[in-house]
Amino acid sequence: GAVVSQHPSWVICKSGTSVKIECRSLDFQATTMFWYRQFPKQSLMLMATSNEGSKATYEQGVEKDKFLINHASLTLSTLTVTSAHPEDSSFYICSGVQEDNSPLHFGNGTRLTVT
Amino acid sequence: AQSVTQLGSHVSVSEGALVLLRCNYSSSVPPYLFWYVQYPNQGLQLLLKYTSAATLVKGINGFEAEFKKSETSFHLTKPSAHMSDAAEYFCAVRHTGGFKTIFGAGTRLFVKA
Q1: CA angle A85, A90, A93 (to 5 degrees)
Q2: Distance separating alpha carbons of residues B103 and B63, to the nearest angstrom
Q3: Can you say whether residue A108 is alpha, beta or left, with left for phi > 0 and alpha for psi between -120 and 50 degrees?
Q4: Which of A2, A63, A71, A93 could disulfide-link to A105, CB 3.0 to 4.6 Å?
Q5: Min distance B88 CA to chain A CA atoms (Å)
Q6: By 3-state DSSP, what share of chain A in percent is helix, strand and coil, each rounded to 5?
Q7: pLDDT tens column, B13-64
Q8: Is the CB of residue A59 less than 8 Å from the CB of residue A48?
Q9: B99 and A91: CB-CB below 8 Å?
């Protein structure tokens, strides 16, 4: 099956620093990648959609200058949380999709804690 | 606009009992429908998907779901619950021709011994 590798699985950083999260599709080319945020005991909130080689499309209310997304290739997308604050602490999950009727394939998520 | 409603944020069943997790969707065009399972501190794993083929879809771990257009439902069932089924389950909808996927609020399944 399709595998998405997300790294790191957890990270603790100090307020004001930046954190980069990587999402790689290991055995398929992800035409589109998505970044979600999940608060405790809640559903997934779509943050942005990225296509290889083009600018990401952000959902309403998501600050594009704070959450920088780069989709450098068909197998790699990165999310950088810039100038992190404690309220950015959350579980971030990436996913990739290959073609129209295929499901999303998820990474295992990254637990970000900002102190 | 698409939306997904999962009835019941928590469902508790006894081991060996029937599992029924409800999902209703709203979509102006024929949708693709998915069920995912999430274990603590992990990503989501696909259980099954409906993409306009057979209306009764069989997935992994003994789960299945039936697409009922007249009821706009896609309920998830399993004949006999196992302790390892305890997890969070998400129903999701996506319209054909696009990738944007909308998730329901999730249903936490508890399995009692």
Answers
A1: 125
A2: 19
A3: alpha
A4: A2
A5: 9
A6: 5, 50, 45
A7: 999 999 999 999 987 777 889 999 999 888 899 999 998 778 899 999 999 9
A8: yes
A9: no
